[in-house]
Design a protein that fits this description.
Blueprint: H1 10-19, H2 29-42, E1 46-52, E2 56-63, E3 69-71, H3 77-80, E4 87-89, H4 102-105, E5 112-119, E6 125-133, H5 141-203, H6 209-239, E7 248-251, H7 252-270, E8 273-280, E9 285-288, H8 290-306, E10 313-320, E11 324-331, H9 362-372, E12 376-382, E13 386-394, H10 400-411, E14 420-423, H11 427-439, E15 444-447, H12 450-459, E16 464-468, H13 476-486, E17 491-496, H14 504-509, E18 514-517, H15 522-532
The protein binds adenosine-5'-diphosphate (ADP).
Adenosine-5'-diphosphate (ADP) binds near residues 335, 344 and 362.
């Protein structure tokens, strides 16, 4: 027996093989189909995709053979990878290189072998696609050609996988990048929106008209920037398949009253007439993600108002039935050309001639949210006449315990003596937090880091701890874990500017029971304090 020599470019050849990360992976149908076809076409009981490693040949796919690999020094394929074209041994018993080879002498008793080298685009033969029989044989021209074509298909499949992996990696990098960027952007926005909110709340009367108007611009611009950041992050979440719903019991009347209030303000600003109605049999509570439902309605109504001239009417109707509720938003604005309608739900699409403010992402995100809720969205429009958008959402009703929780949350007040620790490393955010809690009549203690919090807790007790997640030293997750080990009943609420960190599982595993996103929204904070720090009646 003569073993094959090692190719001159062995190191590069192995690098080319390892690039595919295919060795010792599970069988896959596409490759099995190719070996099956090779065995059919060449009319041999055995066909293999064999990859040549330093000491072995390993089979990515096999027909008619049980072994997963054999040692390289007896491998026929180790010879075949030296060839430019098909390597064919018509009868091993007549061939001095193979007649005493163990694969010839015993199982699988190879008499015939034909292998086409699997050559990567840069010319390295990483293995073969081969056809094997226990009887002597010779391939005809058609069979040789077909075997070569199938061999090229194996490489195409491996290359395709590599491309997909590269795209996935790039996507993952983009997701991570946006996640970090969200943190970086939302932290300063936290300061801008937080302070302007507080100044408007507390200093309105003392400011001159000029500075009041500056402040209102600051507040408006900060919120607009935050909207844009959130929109881009929503898109990122949708693309990463990470957009989830936080369904809770929602009391219908106050929910729609508050929505009505917001959109009436938008309509008044533009001088557009608004009609708003709710009809049908309404349950008192529904189970829904109220933030996302508001987002859907506000997106549609904001568009209707944006594309309507003053004095026209925008009509919003909400109709409840047993199975679903339908939100219809109708305007008498500029309308959309029929040919543009299919583009509307695509990314970054702004249609029509007029240049309006906007990212062109609103409808795409709206549609994704509606579909996530199991609903559907339809848009009809006539150029020059107006647009009607209808959203159907299946009705889900909360269980009694969820409603009970909601009642507790909205009726009870928080205790003004609540002892609160805020763990936050950023100096400006510390000031914002202090000011916000102060405006709610609450004093807080601050810790600059996780380590600092752990030390503080040795001598102090807190009813609730608000925990930033990105911290120097041990992060918020680890700090919470260590706190819960010592104080299993400690209430810890995550405070995070990174919306991806809103992943409930990870928070719960670290012992945090809820999260508040930064910039801190006063209303959400109050709700949370009501829930976790109720006053004792
Ligand atoms: P944007 O944030 O730019 O408004 P959308 O995805 O919400 O993005 O809308 C995409 C485009 O669809 C808008 O730029 C506009 O051209 C068109 N559009 C959406 N709603 C309406 C409407 N009610 N009337 C007229 N055009 C609309």
């Amino acid at each position: 027996m003569i073993s094959a020599t090692i190719p001159d470019n062995e190191d590069e050849r192995l690098k080319a093989l390892y690039r595919y990360e295919v060795l010792d992976t599970a069988a896959e149908k596409v490759f099995d189909d190719l070996t099956e076809l090779a065995s059919e076409i060449c009319d041999t009981p055995i066909a293999l995709i064999s990859l040549v490693d330093p000491d072995r040949q390993w089979f990515k796919s096999k027909v008619g053979l049980d072994a997963d690999e054999t040692s390289r020094d007896i491998a026929f394929c180790a010879h075949a990878i030296h060839q430019k074209e098909i390597f064919e041994v018509t009868d091993t018993h007549q061939d001095t290189r193979f007649k005493d080879n163990p694969l010839v002498q015993s199982d699988p008793h190879i008499r015939f072998y034909a292998g086409t080298p699997l050559r990567t685009p840069d010319g390295h033969a990483i293995g073969t696609l081969c056809a094997i029989s226990d009887k002597p044989k010779e391939l005809n021209e058609h069979q040789r050609k077909a075997l070569e074509i199938l061999g090229r298909q194996v490489i195409s499949q491996l290359e395709l996988r590599l491309k997909i992996k590269e795209v996935e990696l790039a996507n993952q990098r983009k997701t991570d990048f946006l996640s970090n960027l969200s943190h970086e952007l939302r932290t300063p926005l936290n300061a801008i929106v937080g302070f302007s909110q507080l100044m408007l709340k507390e200093q309105q009367a003392s400011l001159s008209d000029k500075y009041l108007s500056f402040l209102k611009h600051l507040d408006f611009s900060g919120k607009r920037l935050l909207d844009l950041v959130n929109t881009v992050l929503d898109l990122n979440k949708i693309e990463a398949g990470k957009l989830g719903l936080d369904n809770r019991a929602v009391s219908i009347k106050p929910f729609f009253e508050s929505i009505h209030g917001v959109i009436r303000a938008l309509a008044d600003e533009k001088g557009v007439t608004l009609t708003f109605s709710i009809s049908g049999i309404q349950p008192e509570f529904i189970l829904v993600d109220e933030v996302r439902l508001s987002q859907i309605i506000l997106n549609l109504v904001a568009n209707a108002i944006k594309f309507s001239p003053a004095h026209q009417t925008v009509t919003i109707s909400v109709v409840f039935s047993q199975e679903q509720f339908t939100i219809a938003v109708k305007d008498q604005g500029e309308g959309i050309a029929e040919s543009d309608i299919p583009l509307l739900f695509a990314k970054f699409q702004q249609v029509g001639n007029a240049k309006h403010e906007g990212s062109g992402l609103g409808l795409m995100i709206t549609k994704s949210l509606v579909e996530l809720m199991g609903g559907s969205i339809k848009l009809n429009s006539t150029l020059g006449k107006g647009t009607l958008v209808k959203v159907d959402i299946p009705l889900k009703l909360p269980e009694d315990k969820d409603v009970h929780k909601l009642n507790e949350r909205t009726q009870r007040q928080y205790n003004l003596n609540t002892k609160i620790l805020v763990v936050e490393d950023n100096g400006i955010n510390q000031e914002v937090a202090k000011a916000i809690f102060d405006s709610l009549g609450l004093n807080i203690d601050l810790a600059d880091s996780g380590e600092d919090a752990l030390v503080t807790l040795q001598n102090n007790q807190y009813d609730v701890i608000f925990m930033d997640l990105h911290l120097p030293g041990i992060d918020g997750f680890e700090t919470s874990k260590q706190i819960i080990q010592r104080l299993p009943n400690q209430i810890i609420i995550a405070l995070t500017a990174d919306i991806f960190a809103g992943k409930n599982d990870l928070l719960r595993q670290s012992g945090m029971i809820d999260y508040l996103s930064k910039p801190i929204d006063l209303k959400s904070l109050v709700k949370m304090l009501n829930q976790y720090c109720p006053s004792q009646h």
